[in-house]
Amino acid sequence: MSSNIQPNETSYLLPSGNLNNRDTSSTIKLEEFRKELFLILKRALPVIFSYILQQALPTVGLFSLGHMRSEYLSASALANMFASVTGWSVCIGLATALDTLCSQAFTGSENPHLVGIHFQRGIILSIIIFCPISITWWYSYDLLIYLNIDEELSHLCNLYLKFLLIGALPYIIFENLKKFLQSQEIMNATTYILIIIFPINIALNYILVNHPTLGLGFIGAPLAVSISNWLMLMLGICYVAFVRGKSAWGGFSKQAFTEWGPFLKLGVPGIFMICSEWWAFEIIGILIAYFGNTQLAAHSVIMSTSALFYMIPLGLSVAGSNRIGNQLGNAKPNASRLTAYCSITLSLFFGACNSSALTIFRNFWSYFFTEDHSVAALVHSLLPIVALYQIFDGTSAVSGGLLRGQGKQSIGATVNLICYYVLALPIGYILGVKYNMGVIGFWWGLCLAIFLCSIFLLTSILRTDWKKDVEDCQQRIINEDLYAPI
């Protein structure tokens, strides 16, 4: 809400954070550093586990379809890629606005329901943005045919997307709900929910895909994902209603339909920040496909490996993002700086651990995924590059999360766009195509991009004026919803 609105007797005048009486010491003590380090790690662990389980849900469907026609497996992989590029990446990017708004409002506003209003705005805007996305999914057959994709593959992909559409909105709302809870320092909720959902999803895939009498075949896989998404959302709502998080809700508010500007100012750069990285990997996957099945299979193994190891920095990123937002909302510039330093330290440590693990298991890692010796040999050659990539990937992910907590999604978007599209893709193309290095050349391009991303993002964090960030946070709360009555 704009700052020229006059307060009334039910309004709040100032955010709860006060620069004059908080966080005066700028010296970081070893004991404080140790406590903050373990606090972030404690919050990150359940997030890491929940992301692993959530990412595994569509993978279960791939395993189920893998025992049927090969065309089914190809179509489901294409459909999941299509959904990620056109749908999930966009909506998850928009929801990064909640990393800033909810976490800062939770500790920075006297109004306990401001977090809930931001959450409702996120849901409304997500629904609006998903309307054209759903039309794209529904008519994806025509688009795929236009792109010269095989007719049967296009038909199956379109069929998969139509059934995935049933559970698309619940998934998107659940992503917003996760951020609503995480901003309130509730990190375990999604873990509990997914521990329940994961075995249900396995059972659904067996019944809907492979069961001799009840199985629906190909369409059973996306239907199982959609049902799981609905169950996730319902369990999430029940958690808020009956366990924790209800105090920040405050009921449905007409305010959620107003003042979308501040949300979009953060959410739109968030879309570019997430999509620029996500899409770059998909583009590279398409380019590598022209080099044949062996190169593409090796790339798929490496992508699966990177996705698995990425869960650790992703969890640290979420924990650091919400922690720093809470600290800024609480008007603690020096504590915010401490959170940033601890988060970066953890990213470097676990990045080194990931890199070491890939180096140690290099000789037989590929055989966890394939028995094809040519693919395994290529994976063996790629692993040193990917091991180096892990160090910078962790730093980049955590630094990006800290920027989201600060409300600086535009910096992350700019850095990602430059590093991936000005550097990674052109250099990868030159090395991969012109110098005939194939997948190895493309991964050297990605490695350079993530190295530069981590340097630029880390530099931005280290040069932050934390007192100004606190002032910006307080002004944001005042200008948006501070004057909202309870």
Task: Describe, in plain words, how this protein is organized in 3D.
The chain is mostly helical and 486 residues long. The protein has two domains: 215 residues, no CATH class; 204 residues, no CATH class. It contains 16 helices and no strands. Helix 1 crosses helix 11. The protein is globular.
* Oligomeric description of these chains: single chain
User: What share of residues is helical?
Assistant: over 70%
Q: What is the CA–CA distance across the termini?
A: 15 Å
* SS summary, helix count: 16
Poorly predicted runs: 1-14
The proportion of residues in beta strands is: under 5%
The overall pLDDT average reads 90
Round the Cα radius of gyration to an integer and report it: 23 Å
- Indicate the overall shape: globular
By DSSP, the count of extended strands is: 0
Features:
single chain; 486 residues; 2 domains; disordered N terminus; antiporter activity; transmembrane; xenobiotic transmembrane transporter activity; Putative MATE efflux family protein subfamily
Quick overview of this protein structure:
The chain has 486 residues and is mainly alpha-helical.
Write the layout of secondary structure elements.
Blueprint: H1 30-65, H2 70-108, H3 114-138, H4 140-146, H5 151-164, H6 168-182, H7 189-210, H8 220-242, H9 261-289, H10 293-329, H11 333-360, H12 362-365, H13 373-406, H14 409-434, H15 439-462, H16 466-480
